[in-house]
Amino acid sequence: MPSPSLDPALAARLGELSDLRHAGHVLAWDQQVMMPAAGGRARGEALGTIRRLHHELLVDAQLGTLLDAAADAEPRIVRTVRRDHEIERRVPGELAAEISRAGSDGYAAWLAAREANDFAVFEPALRRNIDLARRYAGCFPEAAHPYDVLLDRYEPGATAAQVATLFVALRDGLVPLISEIAMQPARQALPGDFPVAAQREIGLEMVQSMGFDRTGWRLDDAVHPFAVAPALRDVRVTSRFDDHSLTGLFALLHEVGHGLYEHGVDPALARTTLDTGVSLGVHESQSRLWENLVGRSPAFWTHWLPRLRDRFPLSLRDIDLDAFMRAINVVRPTLIRVEADEVTYSLHVILRFELELGLIDGTLDVIDLPAAWAAKMKQFLGVDVPDDLHGVLQDIHWSEGIIGYFPTYAIGNVLAAQLWQVAQAEIEGLDDALSRGEVGALRVWLREKVHRHGRLYTPAELIEQAVGGPLDPAPMLAHLRAKYGALYGL
Ligand code: ZN
What we know:
The structure is a single chain. The chain is mainly alpha-helical. It has 2 domains: about 10-150; about 160-490, Orthogonal Bundle (Neurolysin, domain 3). It contains 20 helices and 3 strands. A 3-stranded mixed β-sheet has the order 1-3-2, sandwiched between helices. A hairpin with a 2-residue loop joins strand 2 and strand 3 (about 235-240). The longest helix is centred in the first third of the chain and has 26 residues, at about 10-35. Zinc ion binds near residues 284 and 287.
């Protein structure tokens, strides 16, 4: 653990970097939750200035000198910040600026292409983003594969080769399970009316039991739910509720899972830049654990279904726990990633990873992307892609030059199941506690294993300590086969 005696000059530098990140988070949160639409242009400039100042502080040679001097006293903090410092210094400012401009242009082209439902409108902008991603990777010639460099921005230390091996095993387990489920009669999600105001009330009760409290957290509405934590005691989650489904409750559990991670970092790491999640994959493991492993389990709903029925007596009058479990765990191969269920979701991610890899190593040309997309959707999920809007134009990421990010979603699913397996073994009576509405023991366990460490360890070190080995798809595949085998009578 860091001592309070971190060199004062270094502590001041790290504090400034943390404060700029804090400001950026508040501006970005405000943009999506509060800001009138016409403020967008000025907000873009303000965020650009914050990012530039952050970059200048991080690449400053003086920071390198301070890190050298502190290396013996605070090896873990120094190791992490030095890595950030050295990566940032490798990329010429001119290239970083070009990438940023291409991201804004790409976003505009993507919107226009979606409007026209025509990939050809987006194709030149995507080609530029791919070229720039390759140039960015070229700043790190020692990497075994250019994709490793892109992935490292979101999942530090992970490599394309590791991810490819993991994903082949995952795909080979998921595809047959999904085709077995697809042969069963189709199931329906819950029909009925679930007025938003009542969903919000019971949602708050649920997340208050998880640790959400009004002194350190906020809940707001956003079109695309997200979570952000400007500081350990300032956690902001968003959700989007809908009168005709309960998906907003699951989105809320997901985002509060992200929030608990940020909230659970050891306060001794505050303003060191290590007071946040270590990688996007580890972050997603926290949200998925609460959303799926807890939030779609019979134990959790043993406690909450009667309370939900009190809120929605007409819609849930005839729904017992078994029927409710079937309705909230419908598996159906679909076209859109963000609407995918627990079983099919990771295949949407694996598809994107394989396509990104081809685009970056040059074996797939941008012009052939829609056809490659359609072929993989057929192969993985057995569905036909009717148009670009329901295919290659659905996600925002590539438009903004965000390449190498998608794998972290499936890494999160895999790690969530590994953590869940260990939690079941180490927390006595976990299911009984969940069925009484008590999640405190699980929250404390996750804090101990994952949250409190912030960025002190590498993702690989943290995972090894938490689950006793590297990423492994077996617990996830076993969980899905057991759960859905029973639900679908396979
Ligand atoms: Zn998430």
